[in-house]
Write a structure and sequence with these properties.
With 413 residues, the protein is an alpha/beta fold. It folds into two domains: 14-43 and 147-403, Alpha-Beta Barrel (TIM Barrel); 53-132, uronate isomerase, domain 2, chain A (Orthogonal Bundle), CATH 1.10.2020. The protein contains 17 helices and eleven strands. The protein has helices spanning 18-29, 54-58, 61-67, 75-80, 83-96, 103-114, 125-132, 136-147, 161-169, 184-188, 193-207, 227-243, 274-282, 298-307, 323-337, 353-378, 385-403, and strands at 14-15, 34-36, 149-153, 177-178, 181-182, 212-217, 247-254, 267-268, 288-292, 311-313, 383-384. Strand 9 (288-292), helix 14 and strand 10 form a beta-alpha-beta unit. The chain is globular and about 55 Å long.
Length: 413
């Protein structure tokens, strides 16, 4: 939805002036609520999985990896510290002794600024007092409003014992938190096909996911003579088709390049986009959402999406979530796909990351969208505010919500 805003430009007036066009694009992009299609955040009912506050923000693995580039400390000593001590060290290293110009560090600054906190504080006393003074439910409301996020898709792992027990006991879900079923451990664990299909059917019924999902290594191939291929063919893809669920694939991670960094130790690798093309061709009656971790794969993904209408590119994932790269990828997608893609997801693991990831992303999306309209104007066609609002709604929510609708018998949503 778009919040109502007073402006002298009418919704149907052709925008022929560059400054008026830019102002309208920025206004609409910065006031339109978004569905965040892939996150790792949870509502309070998930207890310890619900991460929030300054200590969680500062011990996020992006910042831990960056801290080790400057701090002269062994990995072992750092991991022996309490979370509070770790957060203090990260703050001192990256925010006091250095300028926080990296995207991850600037994100923390954006969060603090959004709450009116001192971004140059010598320590975390004020920030901790602020976050400790708020009730979690009120805080969630405030964060969603600041981020202009209407709803999020969680990452739910049926093979995580603690989370599985919560689902088994019964969960009353906040409607803004939608479930997805993560299959990494299932696909990598082998197992009997029949029992795995029964397990998957049970968990689809229990969690009511909006899609099935898996993160795959850079060397992923399809077809391939391995257990993962068999599970995809005989379990996951038939289940996706039978339940009318898309399969979301996130491809290109290289796990534990540096194991001593733990969660921060994963790397990036260029993947083979032809694997996605073969999946889309063979399983034309299944919808796929796809994102690749390597910058070098983005053009091939756009071209593949032009060839397969059951393929939806989404987001600038993980190491790609930097303004220069988000801008490049978003512009490339507009040029090849028009507005028929999902420009971003937050991948947030800590609640407040929704604020900075969407504020930063909106700026780059607005810039790319304005340039697209400006080129269109140069070619002889102006747009209206109403048309801009329509396009932004598509990009921020409608493309995704249409994508998760069951395919009909002809393979068209």
């Amino acid at each position: 939805m778009v919040t109502s805003t007073e402006n002298h430009v009418t919704s149907t007036e052709l925008l022929r002036n560059a400054e008026e066009l830019r102002a309208q694009v920025q206004l609409i992009v910065n006031s339109t609520y978004v569905t965040d299609v892939h996150t790792h955040i949870f509502p309070p009912v998930f207890k310890d999985l619900c991460l929030f506050g300054i200590d969680e923000l500062l011990t996020y693995h992006y910042l831990v990896a960056e801290m080790f580039r400057t701090a002269r400390m062994s990995y072992e000593r750092f991991w022996r510290m309490s979370k509070t001590e770790q957060a203090d060290l990260v703050w001192q290293t990256l925010f006091v002794e250095n300028s926080p110009v990296s995207e991850a560090a600037r994100g923390v600054i954006s969060v603090l600024d959004a709450f009116g906190l001192d971004t140059r504080a010598p320590d975390l006393k004020e920030a901790r007092e602020f976050f400790n003074s708020r009730t979690l439910r009120e805080h969630i409301e405030h964060v969603f409003d600041l981020a202009l996020v209407s709803d999020v898709v969680m990452t739910n792992d049926p093979l995580d014992e603690a989370e599985a027990q919560m689902w088994t006991d019964g969960i009353n879900l906040d409607r803004r938190f939608r479930s997805s079923l993560r299959l990494d451990r299932l696909l990598n664990g082998g197992g009997d096909v029949l029992s795995t299909r029964r397990f998957l059917d049970e968990w689809i019924q229990r969690t009511d996911p909006v899609y099935l999902a898996a993160s795959l290594p850079a060397e992923f191939q399809f077809p391939s003579d391995d257990t993962r291929d068999r599970l995809l063919r005989e379990v996951v893809l038939p289940a996706a088709r039978d339940h009318g669920l898309p399969l979301t694939l996130m491809i290109g991670v290289r796990r534990q390049v540096n194991p001593k960094l733990r969660e921060a130790g994963d790397g990036v690798g260029r993947a083979d986009v032809k694997a996605i093309e073969r999946l889309c061709a063979e399983f034309h009656d299944v919808k796929f959402l796809a994102t690749f971790l390597s910058r070098e794969n983005q053009h091939e993904l756009c071209v593949a999406a032009r060839k397969f209408n059951n393929l939806m590119p989404f987001g600038c994932w993980w190491f790609l979530n930097n303004p220069s790269i988000v801008s490049e990828i978003t512009r490339e997608r507009f040029e090849l796909l028009g507005p028929s893609f999902i420009p971003q997801h937050s991948d947030a693991r800590v609640l407040e990351q929704l604020i900075y990831k969407w504020r930063h992303a909106r700026k780059e999306i607005a810039g790319a969208l304005y340039d697209s309209y400006a080129r269109l104007l140069d070619s002889g066609r102006a747009v209206t505010s109403e048309e801009i609002s329509r396009d932004v709604r598509r990009l921020f929510s409608e493309n995704f919500n249409a994508w998760i609708v069951t395919l009909n018998a002809e393979g068209v949503g």
